[in-house]
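Model it.
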Amino acid sequence: SYGGVDGLSVRLTASGNLIRLSYRVLDPAVAKVFADKNITPYLFDQRSRALVQVPAMDRIGQLRQTGQLERGRMYWMVFSNK
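Modeled.
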């Protein structure tokens, strides 16, 4: 487990334009940084040295789940794959 989560999964969407990161919350108090809308999450690929972030859409906001986390529940966020 890392940062109060486990079950990390990173997959390309069908179109390949987005990267979906899924995770299960083990400890909501520790994992709260994953759902804090005031923190900008980034995904770093060590091989390509690419740094991508969660895009923000007009009227929708960031493409990730925010708010109160629940132990044992799966959550996700989507990163731009430019």
